[in-house]
């Protein structure tokens, strides 16, 4: 079964799909943090930590305390996603473990599915940074589409809302229904991730300028 823009609008089912999608997002960023950390700042431990799920790091603060600003950026974005998912679970009475094995909900999570890089271990540090920028950009776009659907109360998202996304913040979020608690939650999450994306671009610009000047 596939999702379609013509599907009847089911808010409860869609929000649960959104919750699963957010779980996939912060799990994806966990892998980025893991591999980048053991490719550079803690490279001496790379043989001990080769798989993020088999040799897992259970306390994410570990990544926030590294000296790698790119990993710290990912840690910031991951924290925002986890907090939003927690709020979503509280407000909607979501049992995350049950939703992750529910076929109907898993299908719903694919409605606006962002790009997820499956095989990160073989990628270089530089390539992982480029993929991370793409991932963060896609996450923001995905969350915006959910907010549009909840604003329109339909999976047929009006073009005026889609086009609004191309405007700079806060204009891009102006037409969203902020009286809806779930839309407001998504709006705050999108704004936070936009800040992380802007900070990431500054870091990458500095990195490549130093490389170009040989510093």
Walk me through what this model shows.
It is a single chain. The protein is mainly α. The chain starts with 10 loop residues before the first helix and ends with a helix. Helix 3 runs antiparallel to helix 8. It is built from 8 helices and no strands. Helices cover 62% and strands 0% of the residues.
Keywords:
215 residues, mainly alpha, 0% strand, globular
Assign an overall shape.
globular
Compute the gyration radius: what is it? 18 Å
- Strand and helix order: HHHHHHHH
Largest sheet: none
Element layout with pairings:
Elements: H1 11-39, H2 61-64, H3 69-92, H4 96-99, H5 103-108, H6 125-152, H7 159-164, H8 181-213
Helix pairs in contact: 1-3, 1-6, 3-8, 6-8
Brief write-up:
The chain is mostly helical and 215 residues long. 62% of the residues lie in helices and 0% in strands.
């Amino acid at each position: 079964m596939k999702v379609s823009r013509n599907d009847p609008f089911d808010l409860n089912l869609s929000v649960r799909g959104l919750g699963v999608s957010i779980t996939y997002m912060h799990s994806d960023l966990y892998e980025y943090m893991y591999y980048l950390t053991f490719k550079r700042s803690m490279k001496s431990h790379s043989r001990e930590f080769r798989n993020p799920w088999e040799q897992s790091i259970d306390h994410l603060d570990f990544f926030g305390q590294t000296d790698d600003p790119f990993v710290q950026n990912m840690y910031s974005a991951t924290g925002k996603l986890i907090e939003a998912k927690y709020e979503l679970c509280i407000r909607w009475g979501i049992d995350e473990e049950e939703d992750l094995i529910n076929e109907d909900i898993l299908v719903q999570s694919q409605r606006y599915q962002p790009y997820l890089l499956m095989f990160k271990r073989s990628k270089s540090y530089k390539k992982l940074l480029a993929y991370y920028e793409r991932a963060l950009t896609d996450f923001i776009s995905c969350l915006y589409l959910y907010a549009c659907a909840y604003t329109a109360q339909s999976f047929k998202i009006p073009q005026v809302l889609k086009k609004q996304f191309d405007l700079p913040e806060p204009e891009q979020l102006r037409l969203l229904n902020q009286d809806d608690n779930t839309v407001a939650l998504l709006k705050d999450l999108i704004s936070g991730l936009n800040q992380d994306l802007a900070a990431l671009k500054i870091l990458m610009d500095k990195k490549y300028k130093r490389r170009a000047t040989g510093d």
